[in-house]
Amino acid sequence: MFETVAQAVINGLLIGGIYALVSIGVTLIFGVVKIVNFAQGEFVMIGMYISFFLATQFGIDPILSLFVSMPALFFVGVVVQHFLIRRVLGLNDLPQIFLTFALSLLILNLALMLLTANYRTVHTWYSDEAFHLGGLYIPVAKLVAFVLAMVLSGTLWVFLHTTDLGKAMRAASQNRDVAQLMGINPNRVFAVALGVALALAGAAGSLLMPFYPAYPLVGQVFVLMAFVAVVLGTLGNVIGALIASLLMGIAESLGIQFIGADSGLIVVFLLLLTTLAVRPSGLAGGWRR
Amino acid sequence: MASTKHRTSSKQQNRRTFLKATGGALVAGAFGAVPLRGWAADPVNIGALYPTTGSMAQIGVGCVAAAKLAAEMVNEAGGIKSLGGAKINLIISDVQSDTTVTRTETDRLITSNKLSAIHGCFASALTLIASEVAERAKVPIITGSSSDQLNKGRTYTFTPFARASQFAQAQLRMSKLVGDKPKVAVIFENTAFGTSTSNGLKGQAPAEGVEIVMFEPYSAGFTDASPLINKVKASGANALFSVSYLNDLILIVRAVKQVGLNIAINGGSGGFVIPDFYKNVGKLAEGLQGVAHWNHDMSDDAQKVNVEYKKRTGEFLFEYAGGLVAQTFMLADALERAASTDPQKVRDALSALDVSKGYAAMAPGGKVKFGPDGKNVYGHPVGVQWQNGDLASVFPKEDARAPLIKT
């Protein structure tokens, strides 16, 4: 019994690390730019395809292709901010929502057209391997993904708290007008926020590639969990999103183990609704960002 | 978009054939002495409805390649002799993996062409619609789709291969090849397809003497198969039936390997028995079992077609595409006997079909004869196993071409 529970927790924690990378991106954009990026999942998908093509064309390990997918998507983020999001920031919520939603549909359908709906997998030497500890097992690819996800999240936290640019981003997220009065250029800060958020999505894609098939709709699978984590962990709160993602992974895994294999999402959404009823501002509501 | 592409290409084809025909007539007129029969045999129009775009495109494209190959084979062998060597003219239409498009395309195909018969659409959901339209227009349709629904209240629909209800039985019997007392875990996606297939397995298990120790629906498109496989491990099963689409199945197979679980996996039919499965899963696919309505190693004829198909596409001739080649020859056989392109006469000839040799008889058991419900009375599925990157027929005994490898 203990073994089964422990294994379920390990499984949940590992996949939670991936949810974290996606949800931190969403929450960062929301926190700084005050816009909900519905297209975040599609950028994960782009990250996956970048890693897929680098692996199949040049034999580059998907994990190493982080060094390509992250800068590439950082650049995409800056471009999206500069040419699209910047234009609608002064308007009300609706154009902003439709902008990222349209972007999501556009990328998704372009991918279906150009890449077809086929599943693509990359097979690395560690894709099917696992460490066995007693009766427990830890898949290598997922462990690598989890550790790197935590490293990236930690790096982001350090960046936000120690660098001027990071502090400027936090300042802009707390109060845009005051930050502007303090001489912070919001456009620059927003562009960096978008870039960093998309780079995290790209990282999620590259880290997924050794153990998850890429296909145009793959982003939708992960973005749903990311949105729940963002709300659960208090909108705009990076650490909150991280903790919420890990909790959700564990809740989903325990639900599958002990309630039923089709209950994963039920458990996750129950967790969300309960949290909202008890703590409407999310788990980290009122905490320092 | 793709449909318009197809439409224009078929229009071009029509123009080309028109030019050829009129050009031929002019030449014939000019020289006066060309015997009429040499060119005058009107081609026989066969409609081919397959999804070549959308979510089912992958298999649909393979089907079209097989349909073209089969038509060429018939034509190169001299066409339909009783019709003066008439060639088969394949009219391909993209049904876009969509039921609404299937309805309109089937209708359009029938009304804008003089069709003798139709084959399609591989996915049962689409074939059910196409067959309804064909029934109303009284044009015979022949299909490899497995839904039992296709045999209810239809007179123009013919299904030469195993029915869905037979697949479950074959799968249960295969589990007994693995051990005397199979303990089966059934996991299935919580969709119409998953639920109906798994209920079929559950319903027939007692009669087959197979114990089901776990029966669990899961949410299709999950992010992680490990919790589910953790559960299978706890159930103590020695055989796993997974009713899943490719994406989930890849994750399931990998998780089984990572857990280090020693269990015989049977993935059923569909996405499990196509070349893409092996490409995606790789070596881990070795030893996995499934069921199919057709397999390329069944007979010498099948192997011959397989070689040609492989030359053209680089892949082995998969279940549905192979069955489709056989179906084309069944249509050719019917046309030969009908000596007419009239759909009603072709339908009557099809219903009297009785073959046990040649390409038309490429089916498990090697015989095809239609009952009053349009079912092949000899139809049954074949159990297959991935061996050395290829699908080998392993069940039942009379169709087995290789022994089952116990994993």
In short:
The complex is a heterodimer of chains A (289) and B (407). Chain A is mainly alpha-helical and 289 residues long.
Shape by Cα distribution of chain A: globular
Walk across the major sheet of chain B and give the strand order: 2-1-3-4-5
- Our measurement of the CA-to-CA distance between the termini of chain A, rounded to an integer number of angstroms, reads 38 Å
Number of helices of chain A: 11
Termini of chain B, distance in Å?
A: 47 Å
Structure explained in plain terms:
The complex is a heterodimer of chains A (about 290) and B (about 400). Chain A is an all-alpha fold and about 290 residues long. Chain A has a domain at about 25-220. Chain A has helices spanning about 1-35, 40-60, 65-90, 95-115, 140-160, 165-175, 175-180, 185-210, 220-230, 240-260, 265-280, and strands spanning about 130-135, 135-140. Chain A has a two-stranded antiparallel ribbon with strand order 1-2. In chain A, strand 1 (about 130-135) and strand 2 (about 135-140) form a beta hairpin. By secondary structure, chain B is of the alpha/beta class. Chain B folds into 2 domains: about 40-160 and about 300-375, Rossmann fold, CATH 3.40.50; about 165-290 and about 385-400, 3-Layer(aba) Sandwich (Rossmann fold). Chain B has 13 helices and 14 strands. Chain B has helices at about 1-30, 35-40, 55-75, 100-110, 125-135, 165-180, 190-210, 225-235, 245-260, 275-280, 300-315, 320-340, 345-350, and strands spanning about 45-50, 90-95, 115-120, 140, 155-160, 185-190, 210-220, 240-245, 265, 290, 355, 370, 380-385, 390-395. Chain B has a 5-stranded parallel sheet with strand order 2-1-3-4-5, with helices on both faces. In chain B, helix 6 crosses helix 7 (about 190-210). Chain B is elongated and about 65 Å long. At the A-B interface, helix 1, helix 9 and helix 10 of A face strand 7, helix 8, helix 9 and helix 10 of B.
